[in-house]
Specification:
- The chain has helices spanning 5-24, 27-30, 37-44, 68-77, 170-179, 191-197, 264-272, 296-305, 328-340, 357-361; strands at residues 49-50, 53-54, 102-108, 111-116, 119-123, 157-159, 184-188, 205-208, 213-216, 219-224, 243-247, 252-255, 275-281, 308-314, 352-354.
- The chain is an alpha/beta fold and 372 residues long.
């Protein structure tokens, strides 16, 4: 028996309403919390804070004047291959805690595991399928996470660069706090309010301004400048963003977080370098966003500015967040790195790298070309 058109429309409307309810239910919690009390007073005392928000102090570039219509046209008709045509090759080997020296494991996007002097530091953990306040909508993974969160070695510190959804994932934070009751969360100013709302005890949180540090299991973690913005809702810049220095007894790691290219990198290199390895954002760029995301060429320049021996590119290949082809960042990066004499290693997601002289001399294996 054929359903009457009016009944079909009503049924469709009810289904849409139910879907919208499911999609919207987790959003208020995922948006986090605003700082208040002592936390807000400490933020207001920061040199980077004025007029009720954090600010970038030195902008080298200005955004382009590309219109919204131009951006939509690029999205619809740009013609770039924004997804891999095959399965991204993953390395699913167990990540043990007992390793000597310095090791870096890229787990996709900006999530990486740094193992130094027996200490395990997890950068910007995002295990969710989508980087969004709702798992019903938003940018979806181009490849699975290569290692389940529960299969990580014991994590001493979780380091967050800023509070955007592709770097601060509520569900991953909750699970880490539950699975690893001794893990510390080291974050820029203001982000502790989000963590506390999600059940992380205040004594497990270290909130830092730029150039402040925390020591975890013998490793020093320093919040350093970046040029970006923050926010999980309509209001912006109510929490600080940062790059990070991870300093062991004899080796150092630099992580850029999300950032436009700026003079701060040379200053970081002078004050905290040289570094054995840099993890640098190279994807999700656009001519209209030079103040907040670097191009691959600027990523190479930042790597050289901080005086790192080898570069591991991050923030590419996992989520489709810009108009360029999914593998374009790495191809452009390798061209610029060869021109500038920079050493680059491009691991597969889940591949653990031992950072030493042999790593710096290795030629990148172009695994991404098999799925491009």
């Amino acid at each position: 028996m054929r359903r009457a058109p009016g009944l079909a429309i009503a049924a469709g409307g009810a289904g849409l309403a139910a879907w919208l309810l499911r999609a919207g239910r987790p959003v208020p919690e995922a948006m986090g919390a605003r700082a208040s009390g002592e936390r807000a007073a400490r933020m207001a005392a920061s040199p980077e804070w004025s007029n009720g928000k954090f600010h970038n102090q030195q902008l080298r570039f200005e955004p382009s004047s590309r219109s919204l219509a131009g951006s939509v046209r690029e999205l619809v008709a740009g013609g770039q291959e924004r997804h891999p045509v095959g399965d991204v090759p993953l390395v699913r080997e167990p990540l043990t805690a007992e390793v000597d020296g310095l090791h870096v494991t890229w787990l996709g996007h900006s999530t990486a595991l740094v193992q130094l002097d027996g200490t395990v530091v997890l950068l910007d953990p995002v295990w969710s399928e989508r980087c969004s306040p709702s798992q019903q909508v938003g940018p979806k993974r181009l490849h699975p996470v290569p290692v389940e969160l529960g299969d990580l070695p014991p994590v001493d510190a979780v380091v967050i660069s800023h509070d955007h959804y592709d770097h601060l994932d509520m569900d991953s934070v909750k699970e880490l706090a539950r699975l690893r009751p001794k893990t510390r969360f080291v974050v820029p100013l203001g982000i502790g309010a989000h963590l506390e709302k999600w059940g992380v005890a205040p004594e497990r949180i270290d909130e830092l301004d730029w150039h402040e540090d925390a020591k975890v299991a013998g490793v020093r973690l320093v919040a350093t400048p970046a040029q970006h913005f923050s926010g999980r809702g309509l209001s912006r810049d109510g929490t600080l963003w940062a790059s990070w220095v991870i300093e062991g007894a004899s080796q150092r790691v630099f992580y850029s977080g999300d950032t436009g290219y700026f003079v701060g990198f040379a200053q970081i290199g002078e004050r905290y370098g040289p570094f054995d390895v840099s993890l640098v954002q190279v994807g999700a760029y656009d001519p209209g966003w030079p103040t907040i995301h670097m191009t691959p060429e600027h990523g190479v320049e930042a790597h050289l500015d901080v005086r790192a021996a080898v570069m591991v590119p991050v923030h590419w290949g996992t989520f489709n967040l810009a108009f360029h082809a999914w593998s374009e960042p790495i191809e452009r990066l390798l061209v610029e790195a060869e021109r500038r004499g920079a050493r680059v290693v491009v691991p597969r997601p889940g591949e653990r790298l031992r950072i030493d002289a042999a790593t710096a001399d290795a030629e990148p294996t172009p695994w991404w070309r098999s799925v491009t």
